[in-house]
Design a protein that fits this description.
Layout: E1 3-7, H1 11-23, E2 27-31, H2 34-42, E3 50-53, H3 55-61, H4 75-88, E4 94-98, H5 104-113, E5 122-126, H6 132-140, H7 157-160, E6 165-169, H8 176-188, E7 190-191, E8 200-201, E9 205-210, H9 214-219, H10 225-231, E10 234-238, H11 248-260, E11 266-267, H12 269-276, H13 283-297, E12 302-303, H14 310-314, H15 333-355, H16 360-367, H17 371-380
Helix pairs in contact: 4-5, 11-13, 15-16, 16-17
The chain binds adenosine-5'-triphosphate and magnesium ion.
């Protein structure tokens, strides 16, 4: 049974919501104490599977507070969330592995926001984006006159993140000489700025991320083995989006809301079908861009196949099958299209209801449709919700 917490902003909306969720067999709790909900989320003490905020409470929460909430209900995402809660409070070094755009930085931020260092800064450094000559100074700081252009003292990210968290993205891109200096700083918790000055104690929790396999880099002599062992006390793997397609509807809805505002459009079943058969090489970031693109292009409140970027739809034919004929004579295109669409819609409803174990609310949520419309679709196809409930 899913434990759902409904946060009340507008009592009328949230009471109705809670009743509907309860009717569908969820264990529902309702509260109007948004502050303590956020505190419990921050402290990793949330014992609900899902938190539902109505529009009014969402506004009160402020978008910023919810920045590091990881959207997704796949089993991979659930595992990730419980690992986060376990690890946020511990100061162990963590290495986050995952493809480009899969959410590594968000996971690092979530670790920071849920841990005891959250009142201090989270500082991110993208090691791959910095010219080699400047890396030392970015990491450890420099004193005035250390090199041409060093017109003043600069603290460096270790000092900026003192007391907080330092996120080193694309750690595999660090040159070997810098890796050696980084290891020394990690071992001694002291930095010395480029160009002299005195050593300074620093206490930053280091979280590193990589989208290349560091074991291979170690074998090839491109990454120091001792640094590798220092950094990867715990490894968190963020799975690529194509391995957790269950998250597509929720993530898509999240981004449509983000870019489409109050009256966010929803996705048509054929759009979702095309998205489910796409490989998402750019992962969640690519999905966000696609949803931004679609919200700029769509004409109605439903986003169809045709409003998706061509890279996504190119590989997957729109859901028109054959000519739909039984006797060798093609049917008119419009009729063939209608039949193929209806057949697809029914298959889609069946598989979504199966996945939702017979809960109409849950199925509607997965389909990113509202409950009333979803129920109407079931009726149109002669499907009975009861037949999907677990025996
Ligand atoms: N589970 C999620 N829920 C909500 N938003 C997400 C999720 N995962 C990723 N995002 C969003 O997708 C975008 C890419 O995520 P992020 O920057 O964390 O990826 P990354 O793995 O660090 O990428 P890169 O390798 O390119 O640095 C961000 O805008 C992030 O907020
Ligand atoms: Mg990143």
């Amino acid at each position: 049974m899913t434990k759902v917490l409904v946060v009340e902003g507008d009592p009328q909306v949230s009471t109705a919501l809670a009743r509907t969720l309860g009717d569908d067999g969820h264990d529902v709790e309702i509260t109007d104490d948004l502050r303590s909900v956020l505190e419990r989320l921050d402290a990793g003490q949330a014992d609900w599977d899902v938190v539902v905020l109505d529009a009014a409470s969402l506004k009160m929460a402020g978008a910023g507070r919810l920045d590091s909430l990881l959207v997704g209900s796949s089993s991979a995402m659930r595992r990730m969330r419980s690992a986060l809660e376990r690890l946020a409070g511990q100061d162990v070094s963590i290495l986050i592995e995952g493809e480009r755009g899969s959410g590594k930085e968000l996971v690092a931020r979530a670790l920071h926001d849920r841990g005891p260092r959250r009142a201090k800064r989270f500082v991110a450094l993208h090691c791959g984006a910095i010219p080699a000559a400047l890396i030392d100074s970015e990491l450890f700081g420099h004193v005035k006159g250390a090199f041409t252009g060093a017109t003043g003292d600069r603290p460096g990210v270790f000092v900026e993140a003192d007391g907080g968290t330092l996120f080193l993205d694309e750690i595999g891109d660090l040159p070997l000489v810098v890796q050696a200096r980084l290891l020394r700083v990690l071992q001694e918790s002291e930095v010395r700025p480029v160009g002299g000055g005195s050593e300074r104690k620093v206490d930053a929790r280091v979280i590193a991320a990589t989208d290349v396999d560091l074991t291979t880099a170690v074998e090839q002599g491109k990454f120091r083995e001792d640094l590798f062992y220092r950094l990867n006390v715990v490894v968190l793997q963020v799975p690529p989006l194509r391995d957790r397609l269950d998250d597509l509807p929720l993530l898509a809805a999240h981004f449509l809301k983000k870019h489409g505002g109050e009256k966010a459009p929803s996705l048509s079943p054929d759009a979702l079908e095309a998205m489910s058969s796409y490989a998402w090489p750019g992962n969640v970031r690519e999905l966000e861009n696609a949803m931004e693109h679609a919200s700029a292009l769509h004409h109605s409140d439903v986003i169809g196949h045709e409003s998706l970027p061509a890279t996504i739809t190119r590989g997957s034919a729109p859901p028109t099958h054959s000519d739909g004929s039984a006797n060798g004579h093609p049917q008119p295109l419009t009729e063939a299209k209608r039949q193929a669409g209806a057949a697809f819609e029914k298959r889609y409803l069946v598989s979504t209801m199966e996945r939702a174990k017979g809960s109409v609310s849950e199925a509607a949520r997965l389909a990113v449709l509202d409950r009333t419309n979803f129920r109407r679709l079931l009726q149109r196809h002669g499907l009975d919700a009861m037949t999907f409930k677990a025996q």
